[in-house]
Amino acid sequence: MVPGEIWVRWQVIGKKGHMKDVLLKMTDIHKSYPMAGMQVDVLKGVDLDLESGGVLAVVGASGAGKSTLLHIIGALDRPTKGGYHYKDHDVFKCSDRELAGFRNSTIGFIFQFHHLLPEFTALENIMMPLMISGKAKKEEIREKAQTLLKEVGLENREFHRPSELSGGEQQRVAIARALANDPELILADEPTGNLDTQTSHSVFDLLVGLNSQRGMSMIFVTHNMELAKKAKHRLRLKDGVVLD
Ligand SMILES: Nc1ncnc2c1ncn2[C@@H]1O[C@H](COP(=O)(O)OP(=O)(O)OP(=O)(O)O)[C@@H](O)[C@H]1O
Ligand SMILES: [Mg+2]
């Protein structure tokens, strides 16, 4: 059984569970790193809940631990201590292989810098996660990627490589790529961080629109309070603890 299948099976079990409106719940999350014989405590007991379909903005100064928290939510990293339930599942009781399945089938990541593959076209970048998951034929994958490109308003940029796209266009390709596997949860780390104000708002409105059309949940990190105010929930981190 491939990791994706393991997680899909779990999701079905999860839907029968009693936490059905709670998508994820984190309790007393700690993260420390050993550094030169000392210990750096980055997260110091963070609690976080999100309901299905909810949008949460994470704000806080540089170094507050926002990316660290997002990586733990996305199971890219394990906490030093603390509980994490996604639906009815105890996430960090999973093996690394199961966590990879969880990420591939459940989460779409959008990073501050788009991390598009430079040698591939916009369309091929979007096709990539679907090719990796191997769930469909190449022709179906191409059609799906074309639909996603249209959804982000870039149907006429299919054959452009990242260097032949503007910053806002690159970020929209990254959003389309994050949506390719129909994730339940989008995790976005400063998705508009390197864009001008107007493009930030249009990229952000695109994400919020996808949230209301598709009902997917979203957690995003931002330094922009105007964008943070558009989220239903906000979490402010300071020195590794939640302020409000
Ligand atoms: N691998 C690591 N080893 C040691 N310290 C780390 C490591 N990763 C992060 N840190 C420290 O953890 C703190 C929080 O980092 P993090 O990237 O989560 O901050 P952030 O809130 O996302 O900041 P920014 O807004 O600048 O992106 C920082 O002080 C950083 O130096
Ligand atoms: Mg960060």
Description:
The chain has a single domain (3-242), classed as 3-Layer(aba) Sandwich (Rossmann fold). Helices cover 38% and strands 26% of the residues. It is built from eight helices and ten strands. The strands form two sheets. Strands 6-7-8-3-9-10 form a six-stranded mixed sheet, sandwiched between helices. A four-stranded antiparallel sheet has the order 2-1-4-5, covered by helices on one side. Strand 9 and strand 10 (241-242) form a beta hairpin. The radius of gyration is 18 Å and the shape is globular. Bound molecules: adenosine-5'-triphosphate and magnesium ion (MG). Residues 33, 35, 40, 42, 60, 62-68 line the site of adenosine-5'-triphosphate.
> Over the alpha carbons, how many angstroms does the gyration radius reach?
18 Å
Number of strands: 10
SS content category? alpha/beta
Major sheet: size, sense and barrel closure? Answer: 6 strands, mixed
Q: State the CATH architecture.
A: 3-Layer(aba) Sandwich
The number of helical segments is 8
The CATH class, by name, is Alpha Beta
Beta content comes to 25-35%
Tell me the name of the CATH homologous superfamily. Answer: P-loop containing nucleotide triphosphate hydrolases
What is the share of helical residues? 25-40%
Tell me which ligands are bound: adenosine-5'-triphosphate, magnesium ion
Write the element-wise H/E pattern from the N-terminal end onward.
HEEEHEEHEHHHEHEHEE
Global shape = globular
Mean pLDDT reading: 88
Number of domains: 1
What name is given to the CATH topology? Rossmann fold
Strand order of the largest sheet: 6-7-8-3-9-10
